[in-house]
Amino acid sequence: AMSVDELLARGPMQESAELRLLFHRLNNQLGIILAHAELLEAKAPDDAHRARAAQVVASALEAMGTANEIRRYATPTPEAS
To answer: Is residue 79 part of a domain?
Structure first.
């Protein structure tokens, strides 16, 4: 798989397949962060640790939403004929 740096070095991404690959990888990475944060939240020994884990969970979910928004802006939509 190409690294993000390699993809960016190729210049503007006009192939939607490249964008889909980057967003897929980003969502996978955020999903791993989310899963571990949820596990930490569930197993937190006290309220302070639970609150910190909950912040990570919320931030991971926000980041996933932001990535989807960026994808919508970055991916050209077919023009209506």
So the answer is: no
- Tally the domains of the chain: 1
Instruction: Quote the domain boundaries for residue 26.
Output: 4-74
**Cα dist from 81 to 12, 14, 46, 75, whole Å:** 26, 21, 58, 18
Write down the H helix ranges in the chain. 4-9, 16-43, 47-74
Answer yes or no: pTM beyond 0.85.
Answer: no
Q: Model confidence over 11-52: pLDDT tens digits? A: 665 557 788 888 999 999 999 999 999 999 999 999 999 999
- Tell whether 80 is covered by a domain: no
